[in-house]
Specification:
mainly alpha
Length: about 450
């Protein structure tokens, strides 16, 4: 079986750090670019500056620290750090981007000074021309500088390097004024957003967000939805703004996958239910249509053992067939699908589809099966091919079966189940968890 260290205090592998970098870098450029394009379409916009700012010198050399912000972004994610430290950094960056972009859209400001012509650093200034003179308040350069300092100073032990880093970040902040990219008001507001990110997202106070179980597999799935989001954003500018609604849905699902916020995709989750339904309706509809398409080609129920059954999400009429088997309880892992009315007792676990599941959550389902197997229990996900298989596999491990015996049995009763590396990692993590409970 494949191994993966899922503990939050384990060192994040380089591959994991790269995936986070690519994911959040894409999120940044997508949202920042969209806000900038929106501002350009609705220009001109108001400019806010103090008269004394006209006396600020334009210093071409400061284009170097200004443009280095992207490089610092890369370094901050690639530095060796624990999975917890990486998650905190990722959440802070996401917080800054989301808050800032909402402000850019709601209150677009425009930079009002003209840059003097200069032959120095022509290449860097040419690159800078792609950034239109909008997205002013708050300054993301300032917000990122603050967050990157708090992150990088924890992972850098050399005091000299720390001093150089701090000095350079201060130059980055100063450069926003000295290359005529921002007015002064953008700096303190950028600092405020950065400090709010530090204040709200901390290891000891943000456990609901930080400790949610997720793995690089979650990020892989999140990337698929993010890629779709990019296409929808392009279509919204090129064709019609209607696609913004579908963008909002796909982007939200991407964030949910990336940060392991499983409960937000649970169709029965009551908090902010109306808002969630409005935003995620296209996703729910897509899941429903997918289930309708494939359910006819898959068997409803497969018998695992006496009183224990495995299968797909049943329609309302199919519950009678399950009931006829003597089943009294259902473990429903397809929480993205509507809860059909049935007399059977339902236990719902919000497992994200096609991801690695939390071993502790799997064990709760295993204990539930073991407790009620004499009453008859039916374990299902959407199609009965992955999430339900993981739980059943874990239950058989709990009862002393070997992986070879389980594989042979599942090939007999559910031959089309998903055979993928992420499934192997699921089982490996549960075996490790089970051994820790037994020892």
């Amino acid at each position: 079986m494949l191994t993966f260290q899922a503990e939050m205090h384990a060192q994040a592998k380089l591959k994991e750090r790269i995936i986070w970098l690519l994911y959040l870098g894409t999120v940044f450029f997508l949202l920042y670019g969209a806000a900038n394009e929106f501002a350009s379409l609705t220009a001109p916009h108001f400019s806010f500056y103090f008269e004394w700012e006209k006396q600020i010198d334009f210093i071409p050399a400061f284009i170097v620290p200004y443009m280095s912000s992207d490089l610092i972004f890369v370094i901050a994610f690639l530095l060796p750090q624990t999975r917890l430290e990486l998650r905190v950094l990722a959440l802070r960056v996401l917080f800054i981007v989301l808050i800032s972009v909402m402000i850019f859209i709601a209150f677009p400001l425009e930079f009002s000074f003209s840059k003097p012509s200069t032959e120095s650093y022509a290449f860097l200034f040419k690159l800078l021309e792609a950034d239109k003179p909008f997205n002013q308040l708050p300054s993301l350069h300032v917000s990122f500088a603050i967050v990157f300092w708090f992150s990088m100073k924890e992972t850098i032990n050399n005091h000299l390097i720390k001093a150089v880093l701090l000095s350079w970040l201060l130059l980055v902040i100063a450069s926003t004024l000295l290359v005529y990219q921002h007015h002064f008001i953008d700096l303190p507001t950028g600092a405020l957003v950065g400090m709010l990110a530090i204040l709200f997202i901390r290891e000891n106070q943000s456990k609901v967000l930080i400790t949610k179980f997720m793995t690089p597999r979650h990020l892989k799935m999140a990337s698929y939805f993010l890629a779709l989001s990019i296409g929808l954003m392009v279509m919204s500018f090129a064709l019609t703004p209607i696609f913004l609604y579908f963008f909002l849905c796909c982007f939200s699902v991407s964030i949910i996958y990336a940060f392991g916020l499983n409960h937000l995709l649970d169709i029965s989750y009551k908090k902010a239910r109306l808002i969630r339904w409005f935003i995620l309706f296209p996703y729910y509809l897509g899941c429903k249509l997918s289930w309708m398409r494939y359910k006819k080609s898959l068997p409803l129920v497969s018998k695992v053992d006496s009183g224990v059954y495995l299968g797909r999400h049943p329609s309302i009429g199919e519950y009678s067939k399950i009931n006829a088997l003597g089943v009294k309880r259902v473990i429903n892992l397809a929480t993205e699908l509507p809860l059909n009315k049935t007399a059977l007792i339902q236990h719902r676990f919000n497992f994200l589809d096609q991801t690695i599941q939390c071993p502790k959550a799997i064990h709760k389902a295993v204990v539930l099966i073991e407790k009620h197997k004499s009453d008859g229990i039916y374990v299902h996900c959407a199609l009965g091919l992955s999430r339900s298989v993981i739980v059943i596999w874990a239950w058989m491990l709990f009862n002393g079966k070997t992986n070879e015996e389980i594989t042979e049995h599942l090939n007999e009763i559910r031959p089309d189940y998903v055979k993928s590396k992420y499934m192997e990692v699921n089982i490996s993590l549960y075996q490790k968890y089970l051994n820790s409970q037994l020892n």
